[in-house]
Amino acid sequence: MKRAVGWIAALGVTTIVFGTVYVVAQQLDRSAANDAPLRLASQVVAELRSGQSGTVAAQPHVDLSRSLATFVVVEDAQGRATSGSGYLANTLVSLPTGVLAHAAQSGRDDVTWQPTKTLRFATVTLKSGDGFVSAGQSLAPSESRSTNFATIVGLAWLVSILMIGAAWFLSVRLRRRPDQPIAATD
């Protein structure tokens, strides 16, 4: 019974280790998806504070349904988009009012925004004076990597579990026949 507990513990620890590896890799990748939007939003906020808007004006029109490019949107105090580069169905997008309300209180809000069933974006919204600057980018590349992470970690977990199972099986077989020598193979 004690040996069985040891083998079950080995299976449990293996599962926990591989699960943790997957979660950490996935979370690091998702968190990194906020980096480009944060850089763009902070640049626009700095320019707006100094009375400039060169970065917003220089941004190309980004069709969010087709492009993976980073986009930016400037919203007024009521949450209406006033300028920017992110368009969906030929309309300048604006993030949900809840995102803007949280940014109004804390100065910043990072969320995964899903304007349609098939589109997901890493977004960062910063408070800027009476308004807001939101920037984002598609999560499609990150989500594709997440699927690859899951496959790789899942296969490594399966191989590890099979190896533990094989070791358990061999230990049981060898324990049951102590009087029989192990045959040498050529």
Helices and strands, with pairings:
Blueprint: H1 2-32, H2 35-49, H3 54-58, E1 62-63, E2 71-75, E3 81-84, E4 86-88, E5 91-92, H4 97-106, E6 108-116, E7 119-128, E8 131-138, H5 140-176
Parallel strand pairs: 1-4
Antiparallel strand pairs: 2-3, 2-8, 4-5, 6-7, 7-8
Features:
186 residues; five-stranded antiparallel sheet; alpha+beta; three-stranded mixed sheet; 2 domains
Q: Overview of this structure, please?
A:
With 186 residues, the chain is α+β, with helices and mostly antiparallel strands. It folds into two domains: 2-26 and 144-173; 35-138, Profilin-like (3-Layer(aba) Sandwich), CATH 3.40.1840. The chain contains five helices and eight strands. It has helices at residues 2-32, 35-49, 54-58, 97-106, 140-176, and strands spanning 62-63, 71-75, 81-84, 86-88, 91-92, 108-116, 119-128, 131-138. The protein has a five-stranded antiparallel beta sheet with strand order 3-2-8-7-6, sandwiched between helices. A three-stranded mixed beta sheet has the order 1-4-5, with no helix packed on it. Helix 1 packs antiparallel against helix 5 (140-176). The model has no long low-confidence stretch (mean pLDDT 88).
